[in-house]
Amino acid sequence: MASAGTNITTDQSALLSLRAHMVTSEPQQILANNWSAKSSVCEWIGVTCGSRHRRVIALDISNMGLSGTIPPQLGNLSFLFSLSLSKNNFRGELPDDLARLRRLRILDFGVNNISGELPSWFGSLQKLDYLFLRNNSFTGSIPHSFSNISNLKALFLSFNSLQGTIPKEIGNLRELEKFVAEYNQLSGSLPYELFNISTLEVIALSENSLSGSLPLNFCQRLPRLWWLSLSLNKLSGQIPSTLSQCSGLQALSLSTNEFTGTISKEIGNLTLLEKLYLGLNNFGGRIDPHSQF
């Protein structure tokens, strides 16, 4: 049943408010001409309406050369399950009103110039499957409330200015498949809880200031892992010989850290490996000439 007091006119007003907050930098003025009160919202470019309630359920205006800010009225699109404003030039902070988009499953603000701290209210969007915030100007730390997004499968935070530690509560994301937060300023050790998420396929945390060592038997708990990228950090200790148990690994990048010890010949058992980067560490010993690298 539709929310009391809201209808397609509510959705129309929200979208017209978004249009009004855009700078006239849209190259071809597509939205300026197409998003008009003279036509049905469901016929507007980038808008998809549901067949049952005829309310806006998806908005995709990505890669249209748009510029401007995101108005709080966007939070009135109460039936929205997919929102993509990626690859534009939206700026400013995200309004708290977006926390009311409780049906969202896909949220993509990637490749813009959105700033401010990562909002803790993301944790209230508990139906989210995919959250893309890469290539923006976000600051602050990763909120602990992210752990409330229990359905989350992909979290992309790369190319921002995030600081602080990776919260151990991330281990609560039991369906997470891709955790990508490269090119930030994250510090502290890798939380042990991260390596308990058995669904993880991609861990990409290169170009941060992470320290500490790799858990000894983490591969036993990550049977689906095929991409591990931790280069350009401050990680130390030895690379576990049990790394060979990550049998599905296709890419392993551990270069430019402070790892010591020897390179285990068991790495040669990673038969699916296509990319291997181990340079600029503090390894010793010699490479076994009989290794199957």
From TrEMBL:
Primary localisation category = membrane
Question: Locate the Disease resistance R13L4/SHOC-2-like LRR domain: which residues?
Answer: 65-181
Per the record, membrane topology reads: Single-pass membrane protein
Q: Does the keyword Signal apply?
A: yes
What PANTHER family has UniProt attached to this entry? DNA DAMAGE-REPAIR/TOLERATION PROTEIN DRT100, L DOMAIN-LIKE PROTEIN
The protein's location, in the record's own words, is: Membrane
Keyword tags: Glycoprotein, Leucine-rich repeat, Membrane, Repeat, Signal, Transmembrane, Transmembrane helix
Q: Where is the Leucine-rich repeat-containing N-terminal plant-type domain?
A: 10-49
**InterPro entries named among the record's database cross-references:** DNA_repair-toleration (IPR053211), Leu-rich_rpt (IPR001611), LRR_dom_sf (IPR032675), LRR_N_plant-typ (IPR013210), LRR_R13L4/SHOC2-like (IPR055414)
Gene Ontology CC terms: membrane
Output this protein's name: Uncharacterized protein
